[in-house]
Write a structure and sequence with these properties.
8% of the residues lie in helices and 46% in strands. The protein is mainly beta. The radius of gyration is 49 Å and the shape is elongated.
């Protein structure tokens, strides 16, 4: 017998206007009910008489398609509304046993017909928190706003936390609805990803308003982390990301795996009860946190990451796979470590990481399975290895070779290697010249090239004056690679006899360079001696003259004690003398740091910048 109220005006009632409310209730034949109205201010019942409020007659009519059911109704009419009629109107239904049911209607009287929208949160909620119930089910979320507007017809839309418009699609994820007084958004099967701020925008005429609601979906953490494959001794980073609400705290633990006799894939190992580090992490969003573990990979193992919040905890793991192999499966020539030529003894090895592969390894040549293959586990590489040998290889042994490896998942993976066999060639010099004399000037650059060719590539060793040239021992102005010795500039101790020796299995060859300093003309030597012995302050033109005959930098470097230092002293003597005279006359000694000079002496020349 719950009553309902209908209004002939949707929304506020204009000041001085007329409105009618009608209260209805369904009753069963034979049941006695009373229906009354209570109005604002005094909550006066229907007996109350007011000049502009009238109550219609009590009506009882049969309900269509429902035998022995009737509908009871009574109207309330307000003429020439004033602000006094603003308030809550109640319809009260009472049966013969004194049981009462109520329905209310809030009526607003406005002074003008200006457009407006008023919104408020139902039950004055500021935030909505939802959790799984005892059955592990999270109930739907209802975000409801009550509104009052003029005109009564509104348009509205919702935005999620990412600013995206919410629609009724998404496989029934969202339901949008509204009545004459309320707008509702329902989120079905809420997940932690639904956590955020939801905003509703309402428009009535040219008036608009918006309200926001915070929604928190509490959930235990979800954890993610990726396995890593690195070389021994390499620094590796494990990124563990966790999603949940409240934001989880993250802890790490590394558990090395047994390698006796070889990797047993400790994926099945349970994490130890102790050994976890202190929980922490960096917040990314309202629901996400991450943390990075820095680790030096000395042996394989498992990294565990656990994330914990008030709703529970979750553990994930990632394998640390350690090997110096460049790939999970490699097929390569183990011997010789150079171009293969006729007559070589050749060893081919196929390596497969033990973490994901078995020792079931087979070889085939040009599509035909091979025999004479043996396998062995490498503790250094954490790999199963299979090998075959070819004694005194010939041209017909070349071709395409295949390595097939069975995985721990009973599947197969394949690698290929093309073997090419060449004829050996004794080393020869491309230039044809085996010795050469070079006359150079000191400080000039020099490049010596050992232009040797052969098959397989010859091994080259450099010598100076019969002593091997070791790359680690050469000066920083000298650069050495396999075929070239380069000097950025020559010094006197760089002069001498250089040799490159090149050899392969077919023989050897040599090339020599005799590096000498260029002899100076007699007039240059005499001129240098004249400058050193007779140079006096003011005769700088001698330097200019010397530039016509040779390298001034070389001259200055070799004769600095006689030339540059003497030049500095000669140029400074007048200033030193002046300082002594100033001291005698009462001036402060500026050389002792007690005052500035009247004039500055020239600085010592930097001959390296000439």
């Amino acid at each position: 017998m719950r009553p309902s109220i209908q209004s002939d005006i949707k929304g506020p009632v204009p000041l001085g206007g007329r409105t009618q409310l009608e209260c209805k209730v369904n009753i069963t034949a034979g049941v006695e009910l009373s229906l009354k109205w209570a109005i604002p201010q005094t909550k006066t019942l229907s007996k109350t008489i007011k000049t502009n409020i009238r109550f219609g007659p009590l009506k009882v009519v049969p309900t269509k398609s429902a035998e022995y059911m009737f509908t009871m109704s009574r109207g309330l009419i307000i003429d020439k509304t004033t602000q006094r009629e603003t308030g809550t109107y109640w319809c009260i239904v009472e049966d013969q046993n004194g049981n009462k049911k109520y329905k209310k209607n809030i009526l607003y009287v406005i002074e003008s017909h200006g457009n407006f929208v008023e919104l408020r949160k139902e039950n004055n909620l500021s935030v909505i928190n939802v959790r799984r119930n005892a059955n592990g089910i999270t109930p739907p979320i209802d975000i409801v706003f009550e509104y009052l507007s003029y005109p009564a017809i509104i348009t509205y839309y919702w935005l999620n936390d990412r600013g995206q418009k919410i629609t009724t699609g998404h496989n029934g994820k969202y339901e949008l609805s509204h009545t004459d007084t309320h707008v509702k958004l329902r989120i079905n099967e809420p997940k932690v990803f639904d956590t955020g701020i939801y905003t509703m925008f309402v428009t009535a005429g040219n008036a608009a308003q918006s309200r926001r609601m915070k929604v928190y979906v509490h959930a235990k953490p979800i954890v993610q982390m990726q396995s890593k494959f690195v070389k021994t001794g390499e620094q590796v980073l494990f990124l563990c990301r966790s999603i949940g609400f409240p934001r989880p705290e993250i802890s790490f633990m590394f558990q090395p795996c047994s390698n006796k006799p070889k990797w047993t894939n400790c994926f099945s190992q349970a994490p130890a009860a102790s050994g976890w580090d202190s929980p922490r992490g960096i917040a990314e969003t309202k629901i996400a946190k991450s943390r990075v573990l820095h680790h030096t990979a000395m042996r394989p193992g498992v990294v565990y990451c656990t994330a914990t919040n008030s709703e529970g905890s979750e553990v994930t793991q990632a394998d640390l796979l350690v090997s110096d192999l460049p790939d999970a499966i490699t097929m390569e020539i183990e011997h010789p470590m150079e171009t293969i030529t006729v007559g070589d003894n050749v060893t081919v090895v196929c390596s497969a990481l033990v973490y994901n592969y078995t020792n079931d390894i087979t070889f085939a040549r040009n599509g035909i399975d091979m025999t004479g293959v043996w396998t062995k586990y490498s503790e250094e590489l954490y790999a199963e290895q299979a090998r075959f040998n070819i004694e005194s290889i010939q041209h017909e042994d070349g071709g395409m070779y295949r390595c097939q490896v069975k995985t721990i998942y009973d599947t197969y993976e394949t690698r290929y290697l093309h073997l090419q066999v060449l004829d050996p060639v004794k080393p020869i010099l491309a230039s044809g010249k085996s010795s050469k004399t070079l006359v150079v000037e000191l400080t000039s650059p020099l490049r010596l090239e050992c232009d040797v060719i052969g098959t397989p590539d010859p091994r080259i060793i450099w010598f100076k004056d019969g002593i091997p040239v070791v790359p680690e021992n050469v000066s920083n102005h000298v650069h050495l690679n396999r075929t070239t010795l380069t000097f950025e500039f020559l010094r006197e101790d760089d002069l001498g006899i250089y040799e490159c020796r090149a050899e392969n299995k077919m023989g050897s060859i040599y090339k020599y360079w005799k590096v000498l300093e260029r002899e100076k003309k007699k007039e240059i030597k005499d001129f240098e001696n004249t400058i050193v012995s007779n140079f006096k302050t003011g005769k700088l033109m001698l330097i200019v003259e010397y530039c016509k005959y040779g390298n001034i930098l070389n001259f200055l470097q070799r004769n600095r004690p006689f030339f540059v230092d003497q030049l500095y002293n000669d140029l400074n003597n007048p200033y030193l003398t002046m300082n002594i005279q100033k001291q005698q006359s009462g001036y402060v000694d500026y050389l002792a740091g007690q005052g500035p000079p009247d004039e500055y002496a020239p600085a010592l020349p930097n001959i390296n910048m000439i």
